[in-house]
Design goal:
single chain; alpha/beta; Aconitase, domain 4; seven-stranded mixed β-sheet; 9 helices; 15% strand
Length: 205
């Protein structure tokens, strides 16, 4: 999993509430094996008839085509449990979504795949959208080490991430990797348990 430490990049405002996983990645982009999920991100909104781009949609407009951060409304990622919603965001190049709240399963899937979901009050998300709207470039800086986000060179807002999740993202470790950091403890337990209960362990070759 790719590490997340600091990210400075274009932020796209999409401040709709209740954006569900079907809107994030429509099912037709999932069922076609080998399809570029990043290309299908918000496919129902980005494309119209004959898959022509909808010029009114934010991610089809420069400079948001290169968005690395998404500002969203409350309950982002609600709906079905499809992990492809996170994969589609990452495939497009988005590494951080900032919203007042997230769907529970989407929130969990984000951490498992290296996407940072930042929760801020709705007025603070709106303030960030206003700030980038008035800036020469719509750029935000996200610092996971200090848990802050803001327009570069301006005052930053603080956010909270559970420490175990923050550490995993900073180190680029998924749950299996985190378990393997305790390999010495696991080996010690198994050695002690083997001597206590040898009958449950198969003979060594």
């Amino acid at each position: 999993m790719q590490k997340f430490e600091k990210l400075t990049g274009v932020a796209a405002p999409l401040l709709r509430a209740n954006i569900d996983t079907d809107a994030i990645i429509p099912v037709r982009w999932i069922v076609n094996f080998g399809q570029d999920l990043g290309q299908g991100l918000f496919g129902g909104w980005r494309y119209g008839e004959n898959d022509a781009e909808n010029p009114a949609f934010i991610l089809n407009q420069p400079p948001y085509r290169k968005a690395r951060i998404l500002l969203a409304g409350q309950n982002f990622g609600c709906g079905s449990s499809r992990e492809e919603a996170v994969w589609a965001l990452l495939g497009f190049g988005i590494r951080c979504v900032i919203a007042p709240s997230f769907g529970d399963i989407f929130f969990e899937n984000s951490f498992k795949n290296g996407l940072l979901p930042v929760m801020l009050d709705g007025d603070k998300v709106a303030a960030l959208a206003d700030a980038i709207g008035g800036a020469p470039e719509p750029v935000l800086a996200v610092d996971l080490a200090s848990c802050t986000v803001g327009v570069p060179g301006s005052s930053a807002l603080s956010f909270h991430i559970e420490e175990s999740r923050r550490r995993a993202l900073l180190l680029g470790l998924d749950e299996v990797d985190l378990t393997l950091t305790r390999a010495a403890d696991i080996d010690a337990f198994q050695a002690a348990d083997r001597s206590r209960r040898p009958w449950i362990y198969p003979p060594r070759p």
